[in-house]
Request: fold
Amino acid sequence: MKNKFALLFILPAALIAFASCSKSNSTSSPVYYQGGDQMGRPAINTVFVNAAAKDSFNNTLPSAMPARFTAKFKAQLLALNPNYTTNALTLTADQFVGVLTGDVLNVSTTGTTTFFDGTNVLTGRTLSDDVIDVELTLIFGGPMGNANPGLISDHVNANDKAFLSTFPYLASPW
Amino acid sequence: MKKTKILATAAIAIALGGGILWAADHIDAPAVTNQSTDITDVYAFKGADAGSRVFLVNRQGLMNPGATAAAKFDANTMIEINIDNTNDNVEDLVIQAIYDGTNMKFYGPVKPSATGFKSQLEGPVTASVAVTPYSATAPITATGTNGIKVFAGPRDDPFFFDLDQYHKIIAGTASSFNNPGKDAFAGTNVMSVVVEVPVALLNATSGKINIWAQTKKKI
Reply:
């Protein structure tokens, strides 16, 4: 009787051990990676997302961002510039945040690649693009891009080291 | 002079670390600040080869030379460049990079087995390059089996911005930027991963793609 009880316990344990052996013999389990940081366009999380939602923004896939963040982005834009009407790209507040909420970097594979060069808009981001001035101008500059003259440029217009003309393009470290 | 500037920059960085910070993406969210996963910037552009596009992900920002000399890539952090070529902001291809203790190994561009935040390395390795040491006089680069060019190592932070004055404006102690401004990122370094990819590998039938970078920790 006692032995029978013992067998009842040993048998399932043996079966489990056998099952796990067979599993590890067939394929090794895949290693997964998850969590961390996320970024598309420069300064979007930092500018348009309030402190409480910053981690949440990093943990929302770009395709799910518009539904969750459009209203928040608009509130933040109007908090930064209560007088916002349209900007130099003729975008209303709704249109502007509509462009920004899916936080991906648009990249042309056939033409010029730049954040904004006066002609091309959001076709990439080159190392020398003054992305801060572009964003300040679009947020504070009004329809002509010249309103709030003290706020539309930080007057730092280039990097502190020259970039390389060949791969990997970045300057050597300090 | 240079040392003073670096110390000042470091002091500003420390002082602002707990506050509101507007940089490209440097220390943008509490959960990643001061982690190997903290992305500082993402760039995508046409480089020296008009038939390729360069993708560049920087991490671990605001490092002075001393910190840079000691900086390492993390073998448990995957760096992933997500590429959408159908304009729905869902990745159709990924390029992944992971450090093995000596080399940075690259995977892709390849269609991932699953989209989203949970990823596995999508083999096989397509390129591998020794991490360029801080002391190196020239960057170490390599070309992969599929023609991608790769680099990994410390570089100057290419971002430039008068962050200090912006903070004064936001705090209400200044009403405008100075001319000239002062680059808060001058004299600081980042850990960079650079990939130059032949356009043919991107399946960009519409002439454009959308990209974003993610860092992911081994779970």
About this structure: Residues 2-16 of chain B form the longest helix (15 residues). The mean pLDDT of chain B is 88. Chain B touches chain A through 94 residues (CB under 8 Å). The radius of gyration of chain B is 18 Å.
